[in-house]
TrEMBL record:
A Pfam entry, by short name: NAD_binding_9
Name of the protein in its database record: FAD-dependent urate hydroxylase HpyO/Asp monooxygenase CreE-like FAD/NAD(P)-binding domain-containing protein
Region of interest called Disordered, as start-end residue ranges on this chain: 556-580
Top-level taxonomic group: Bacteria
Ranges where the FAD-dependent urate hydroxylase HpyO/Asp monooxygenase CreE-like FAD/NAD(P)-binding domain occurs: 13-177
Length: 602
């Protein structure tokens, strides 16, 4: 075992060196001139230690050693790690290139994840280079196992394979997406698979899953129709030697290699996530936030009875998304409306939900131009098919329609709703844990796969390699097999010896496999929200204790916290909630280190 030496100088340890850790370093570098060097104490310097077994910048998800067949689900021009004037923060804007500008790619390209990993490494290296010479950065390619130390004293971060800890004045947990222990249902399914010589692959990061047990030609039940499924689909088809012919922007034909299993996929909704939108928004964006902004968010926790998401928050979100939709419809497609915008806006602002429905019916003649969030969320609700075969064609038609509409500029209110969703997300992170439904709904509408992936789904379906099961897919372990069914096709079922849960593990504190987080939870040093997330202060990410008091020296950022954002990077000029959080945390860290250096000098 080797020993890790500790430094006497002020020290910051960031556990997690992926995009969130790299983004925090970038914000530290941007704020150092004002908050540290400008204090007259810059000459004392400080040390930054990044702890992560994976490479800095790219981290686990974007590392180089993964299949080049796996893409990002955002176009290259829609990916940036740099702030701009739309980010509401106290620190300075430090603009930089988007992925497509940095890599000299077609902005419309869906780059593979290894290219994004290289971009993230460059961002990290650039941030480190921007730090003053007396600020050192060191990457420790190890796992962090524990954090110890009194609230008011230096912390110790214990690393795997080392006898001595890293001493730290401050610790930031930027852990990223976490593996999780199986929940009760998954444990039962895994036990059944062991007892009956079946295959059960629980929720996991698909790129890390061992898929070798899924045999060629055999049926495989897949529960989950989001981005984890898309990765699974790719690795089990092209990844096993299959190929497509035809127009990537049109109809494709799939030629199997013969090594593919036969996939039977279903989910709660029974349909894939909506395609990425394939056009730009010409003209003015909706002026957001309008009905769900800082004032509304601040008023919710102040209610004596507290707030409930469905009762108190969702009506405001519905009104906000409706405003985005109709603002665009009236501005860009006035011929499809029957009222002046000024009149509509005034009445819309004053109306409750029932009154808004009446208003919309009179002002928007075509029902296809009206926003129906409930129908969007559950597109197969109440729909029944007489046979499994009939449903296959029905869902292929659904996907074709989705592709057509998401690439049709005459449907531009859809893109306005996308911007509305981003605005809402930026506000909701201030409320903490609002439950899991919202995050799934956001991903389904705003973070779906590239259009070419849905065209590949259609080709695989026509080739007989992919079959659709339906909504509210139920899985039973019985008669020595796994059996799937759905009310979408009454009386039909599919059986298989293999079941794949195509979704990410839930980032709960209690079930996280991360030893550091589990140890903190066991000690009672962190608080778990009702959804199992790590409770943090919504402004700067300080970890909260059982009394809701922020820890002075421990911070946490990322999807395992109740201030999770849509992602560590984002689309340019959309406010970047993660950037805002990174900036607030970086400034809190620098103020602490500045004051610590001042006390030392004094």
């Amino acid at each position: 075992m080797t020993a890790v030496s500790s430094a006497a100088r002020p020290s910051l340890v960031i556990v997690g060196a992926g995009p969130r850790g790299a983004g925090l370093v970038e914000r530290i570098a941007a704020n150092v001139p004002e908050l540290y060097e400008g204090s007259g104490l810059g000459g004392t310097g400080f040390d930054i230690h990044l702890v992560d077994p994976h490479p800095p910048g790219a981290g686990r998800i974007w590392r180089a050693d993964q299949s080049p067949l796996l893409w990002m689900n955002s176009q290259a021009e829609d990916v940036t790690m740099f702030t701009d004037a739309t980010v509401r923060m106290d620190g300075p804007v430090s603009e930089g290139p988007t992925l497509h500008e940095w890599a000299d790619l077609d902005g419309r390209l869906f780059a593979d994840r290894r290219i994004q990993g290289a971009y993230l490494r460059w961002v990290y290296d650039s941030a480190v280079a921007a730090l003053p010479p007396d600020v050192t950065v060191r990457h420790h390619p190890h796992r962090a196992l524990r954090v110890t130390g009194a609230r008011e004293g230096r912390q110790q971060v214990w690393l795997e394979g080392h006898e001595r800890p890293l001493d730290a004045d401050l610790v930031v947990l930027a852990l990223g997406h976490l593996d999780a222990e199986l929940d009760e249902e998954q444990r039962e399914l895994a036990a059944y698979a062991r007892d009956h010589d079946l295959v059960h692959l629980p929720p996991d990061f698909t790129a890390d899953s061992d898929l070798s047990s899924l045999r060629p030609g055999e049926p495989v039940l897949v529960r989950g129709f989001g981005l984890a499924f898309v990765d699974l689909m790719v690795l089990l088809t092209e990844g096993r030697g299959g190929r497509y012919e035809g127009d990537p922007e049109g109809e494709l034909t799939y030629h199997p290699s013969g090594r593919e299993p036969v996939l039977h996929v279903g989910s709660r909704r029974g349909v894939p996530y909506h395609s990425k939108i394939g056009y730009d928004l010409a003209g003015e964006r909706p002026p957001l936030p309008r009905f769900f902004g800082p004032a509304e968010v601040e008023a919710l926790p102040a209610r004596p009875e507290g707030f409930d998401f469905r009762r108190d928050v969702w009506p405001l979100v519905e009104k906000e998304l409706g405003f985005a939709h109709y603002h665009r419809l009236f501005a860009a497609h006035p011929g499809r409306t029957a009222m002046a915008w000024t009149d509509f806006e005034e009445k819309y602002a004053a109306a409750d939900a029932a009154e808004r429905a009446t208003l919309v019916a009179s002002a928007v003649p075509d029902p296809a131009d009206r926003l129906d969030l409930a129908a969007l969320d559950r597109p197969l609700e109440g729909t029944r098919y007489a046979s499994y075969e009939e449903f296959q064609e029905g869902l292929r038609e659904y996907i074709r329609t989705d592709l057509s509409e998401r690439h049709d500029p005459s449907r531009s209110p859809d893109l306005a709703v996308f911007f509305g969703l981003l605005s809402v997300y930026g506000q909701l992170i201030r409320l903490g844990d609002v439950g899991s439904w919202w995050h799934g709904f956001f991903s389904y509408l705003a973070s779906g796969p590239p259009g070419p992936r849905l065209r590949q789904m259609l080709a695989l379906s026509r080739a007989g390699v992919l079959h659709f099961v339906g909504a509210d897919m139920a899985v039973a372990a019985e008669d020595g097999v796994f059996r799937a069914s759905s009310a979408t096709v009454p009386g039909a079922s599919v059986e298989a010896r293999a079941l794949v849960e195509a979704r990410l593990p839930q980032p709960t504190v209690a079930r996280a496999r991360d030893e550091l987080l589990r140890a903190l939870h066991a000690e009672g040093a962190v608080v778990e929200t009702p959804e199992g997330l790590l409770a943090v202060h919504p402004f700067d990410g300080r970890v909260l204790d059982g009394a809701g008091v922020p820890h002075p020296r421990r911070f946490a950022l990322g999807p395992h916290t109740d201030s999770r954002t849509p992602g560590a990077f984002t689309r340019p000029r959309t406010g970047g909630p993660a950037f805002r959080q990174n900036d607030a945390t970086a400034r809190a860290l620098l103020v602490f280190l500045r004051d610590l250096a001042g006390d030392s000098v004094g």
